[in-house]
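hey so u asked for the seq, here:
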Amino acid sequence: MRPGKRTRAIGRSRLDFPADVLSRIPLANPGDPDLRSPIRFLMWIARGQRRTVIGGAVFGAVWMGTQGVIPAALGEAVNAIIRRNGPDLVLWAGVVLALGILQAAAGVLRHRRAVSNFLEACVRVQQLVIRAAIRLGAGLPRQVGAGEVASLGTTDVVRIGRLLDISARGTGAVVSIVIVAVILLSTSPQLGLVLLIGAPISALLILPAMGPLERRQRAERQRRGAASAVAADTVAGLRVLRGLGGEADFAARYRRASQEVRRATVRTALVQSLLDGLQVLLPGAILVAITFLGARLVRSGSIPPGELVADYAYAAFLALPVQTLIQAASIWSAATVAAGRVLSVLRLDVDIASPVDGGAVPQDDDLVDEATGLIAPQAMLTAVVIADPDLASSTAARLGRLTDTPGDARVTLGGVALDTMPLAEVRRRILVLDRDPQLLIGTLRDAVDAPSARVDEAEQRPSIEQAIAAACGDDIVSGLGEGLDSLISERGRSLSGGQRQRIALAAALRADPDVLILDEPTSAVDAHTEAVIGERLGDLRSGRTTVIFTTSPLLLARAGKVVLLDGGSLVSGTHTTLMAGDARYRSAVTRGDD
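ran it, structure tokens below
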């Protein structure tokens, strides 16, 4: 992609991507936003890109201000024709040409700054939302729905970006109205007063509609977020729904949610249509008034005919700045609602406490769960058997401190409680792989090449090829058209469930954390592949602590230590000894089939 050549439609007409904007996106640091109110947040965004905002305002003022001056030059040219004064006609025709060239140049420069404002504001807000999602981590789904986050990253950022976009035209509209008013007052006070009185009245007439519009936009935004959440839940559980025959129920839920969105949108559109009508009616009324009074002044001999031509041109031109100001008011209302929704996520606190003083940093040692008595020895592959899958997942999350440990039931690493360690240190040392991992859109290489958990020893971690081989993913790579450079669709939907599990496992192995916790990592793969994974996993994780929550005999047989957790009691041993001597273990592993 070559900067300056690419165009894309983003919630508006085709946008030119200036090269200087592309060079800054993504932003190295989106900054620390002002979270006190939506208006302060929007002002903070504007200050963050003040160079392009001020530049757009300057060029917008020149662009629209020049348009406001052109009628005066046209009027003088008409007067020169009436006087049959050739030199004056040539002079004023040249002035009109020069103003036209200046207007065109300023328009191009204004548009580039407006596009810059739009793109940079969108990217800045998106990066802030992504940073908040990373900061909240596993706590994000517990506080915000997936559909809400998706709406923030699409609809709301565009509404905020449009406000920064129209700032250039809005400034030009104000400047041009002032210029035209001054000219009219100097040539014809009566016509100038019509403009000076008509413009404020136009603004006052739209103010009563702004409150209802903002309330209806807020209600519409909430309905859209709810509908997006229902859609996300439905798509995520589509396979299960088909198996249970629940498609009709979820389709009915989404139909109800979408109908609520439709009704809310129609209510918003009623007020918006009123504003759109005022954009035509109010400038038109000013045009009619100025034209009528100007014609009477010409008839009475108070002003020359050329002045009437100029006055009519002024009135016709004023339709643009007045419409722009009304449009800006509507965009401002939508942007403040969007900013409020963005702030609702940016203000969220991590629901897992982190020590303020930094806490202790342990040496590599055993991982101990004081609640159950589970001990995962250092540098050993430990398998944990829990018959209840939900309880197994919650235990895995507690071991990785994805949830807070209640009371005195702490999890320790090397004798240091995880809740006394900085969260960043816990995340660096311990990685939990869910049983239903989600893959992001991108190449297969990007999906596997996870950031190193051992920054100081990054060169010692497994290569991408080694991680894929250990996860038995070689057939996935060879089966895709472009190997590691093949694209994976959103959430990995182009792959089967077993393929997604293996790619996610390869990414976890590539990250090479001190402690790797796997929650049923092979539940969707066949028995032969599962056996190979069990063998290769132990070899690749040699010298590292690994905990697997599983009931698969093929994985349990490869573990150095097997622990059965059942109703608060704990039994440990090897797979062979527990199969021979513990009926509860045998029932959990064989699922009740002896």
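Confidence is low (pLDDT under 50) at residues 1-17. The CA atoms of residues 51 and 543 lie 54 Å apart.
lmk if thats what u needed
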